[in-house]
Amino acid sequence: MAKFNAREAGVGLIVPALVIGVWQLVSMKGWVNPQMLPSPLAVLERWIAYLLPVQPYSPEQGSWLLWAVSGELIVDALGSLYRVLVGFAIGAALALPLGLVMGASQTVYAWLNPLMQLLRPIPPIAYIPLSILWFGLGNPPAIFLIVLGAFFPVLMNTIAGVRQVDSIYLRAARNLGASGATLFVRVILPAAVPYILSGVRIGIGTAFIVVIVSEMIAVNNGLGFRILEAREYFWSDKIMAGMITIGLIGLIIDTAVNQLNNHLLRWHRGLEN
């Protein structure tokens, strides 16, 4: 697995630090309306208030730990993360086997590809009216939209991965007497893994985009809902606090997926450790 590189991480923080510094300078100089663009310190203050529990702790409330994680930010972040993970898991579980079959079988590909190409350009947001009509309000329509958002990146990358397997590998395996099942499991699937993981990474990013939109429409909690609520009251600092939280969660998940990618593909890159 790729080791943590402190120097690389430090270099990566330079640009965000410069952006925050310029942002704070612009705010201090009064060049922008603070209601339109609050200062980083104001956003940080709101983010901390958003993170902390609303009510002071009382022993009658029960566990201190449950009280400590009862802040709006934690509850909203967990709600959004739950929808993303469930929706992505369902979407990927549907897309992966279908993509493997479509990639491996020209007949199945010929039958299903026109339908997939017809549905793929339709953005999940376009399904919002139907999702509410079919599932009502709450988690089901939001998860349905996330499934759609995650499904096609994983599907298309899986198909591409299977169809791009080098014919040299296939001929070599056949010459060694590999059966069809062995050829698929031991050659085609491992060779397609880089494409599949790329689809997973794109699918998770799409799922985050969709969950924020769906929470603004169909549910009454989550980061998307809270951003929309803040817009109603013109709390621009809370809007930005929610946006930054989304970015941080996305960064953490993307880093974890990238580390998993590096670990699973160390053979592909010629790494032993």
Automatic annotation (TrEMBL):
GO biological process, alphabetically ordered: alkanesulfonate transmembrane transport
This protein's record includes keyword Transport: yes
Keywords, sorted A to Z: Cell membrane, Membrane, Transmembrane, Transmembrane helix, Transport
Domain ABC transmembrane type-1 positions: 77-261
Record Pfam families: BPD_transp_1
Spans through the membrane: 9-26, 89-112, 132-155, 176-196, 202-219, 239-257
Entry's Gene Ontology cellular component terms: plasma membrane
Membrane topology label: Multi-pass membrane protein
Top-rank taxon, per record: Bacteria
Subcellular localization, as worded in the UniProt entry: Cell membrane
First-listed, main subcellular location of the protein, grouped into a coarse class: membrane
Gene3D superfamilies: MetI-like (1.10.3720.10)
PANTHER family named in the record: ALIPHATIC SULFONATES TRANSPORT PERMEASE PROTEIN SSUC-RELATED (PTHR30151:SF38), ALKANE SULFONATE ABC TRANSPORTER-RELATED, MEMBRANE SUBUNIT (PTHR30151)
Family note: Belongs to the binding-protein-dependent transport system permease family.
Protein name, per record: ABC transporter permease subunit
